Amino acid sequence: MSPDPGRTVDAEGVRRDILDAAPGAEPYVLRGAHVTGALLLDGAEVRRSVRFEACLFDEAVSLEGATTLGVSIVDCTLPGFRAPTARFGGRLDLRRSTIGGDGHDAVELVHADIAGALRLDGARLIAPGRMAVDAGGLVMRGGVFCEDGFVAEGEVSFPGAELPGGLWMRGARITVGAPDAYAFHGDMLKSSTVRLSRGFTTDGRVRLRSVRIEDLLTFDDAELLGSGTSLMCVGMQAGALDLRFRYRPAGGVNLRTAHADRIQDHPSTWPATLGLDGLTYGWLGETAHTRREDVENRLAWLRRQPVYVPQPYEQLASHYRRCGHEDEARRVLLVRERRRRATLGPAGRTWGWLLDSTVGYGYRPWIAGIWLALLTLIGSLVFAAHDPVANAKDEGTPFNPVVYTLDLLVPIGGLGQRDHWHWAQGGVQGLAYALIAIGWVLTTAVVAGVTRTLSRN
């Protein structure tokens, strides 16, 4: 149904008809009319439901500070709808209406209170460079629905809103004309669920700082084209977070100090940069069919954090441990130490390299066993090919090249060989001194690496 240009009604007459009704009167319904003048109901107490269908309004409809029952403006065209601080006893229905175009914000609901749902399904909101929806501090009892072809030219804003029935924007499209501008702003939003998914598209940034989502915050199949930081979720808390975008976001995703009980994502849509410092989670979706591939993918995920910080590695290792994957947890912590080494000075890097090559920073102590076996083999072969000189005639145990080598390498205790034999050849004696030095270095590295591991984990 479209407005009948021949049927014109005056806004003042409409206002009188709406306000002159007794409590509980039949709903006021107007269909297919051209409403001239401004329909102003600011501060009014409207005691009946109001419904406009397929009407054309010359000027914005205003209910600032009004108290009313349900209001429906469906399939209509109007320059704006303004109801800041208004109280709606039923739902507010703006489905399939075209709102805006007068150089002002399209829909204003700042600190409004709506007992029912807010329906914007199929609506087209036109406010380029301004607010398509300005709903800061909105208090709902039902949900907010912006689906079925919802289009907004201008920012959609719900900062500090309370939406127990959820925010549903599946398939919605928001355009702001500038990739560095905010297309969706929802700081401090509280909601049961937020669905910016199933084809949700925006050419600007999405900002959700410190939101509280009881159930699911999802961007499944969403397309985020904002530059810089496409998605800002610093301090977010959510029951579940789905980051399986349709394509890789044009900018970064910032999840610093956020928490989600469950996170689901996919390597193919990871952004170029990720803010992960302080991010915590109870469960992290797998990225591959094997654990080896999954941990490699997750380490690549952590490398998208622009600068090294230890917490994301410790959090990932904790996740693997809760899953019973100790080997993967040690692998993550080893990579953490290697990345940390790159941030140190020359002395720190040298000591870190020594810890890594000897015991894998304590996470691979078996490497020390390999060094010990290799050095024992080399020493045994060299010492067996030469004749030792006894320190005292007719004293000491018979010479054994293997035990002698071990006695040199292990600085603690003694095996009865090192103190009873020496070498006349300078080269062989030099090898003996070198093995003593290597033994001390290897032992120090083992103790330091194991102590480091036990103290930090």
Automatic annotation (TrEMBL):
Keywords: Membrane, Transmembrane, Transmembrane helix. The chain crosses the membrane at residues 366-385, 431-451. The keyword Transmembrane applies. This is Oxidoreductase. It comes from Streptomyces guryensis.
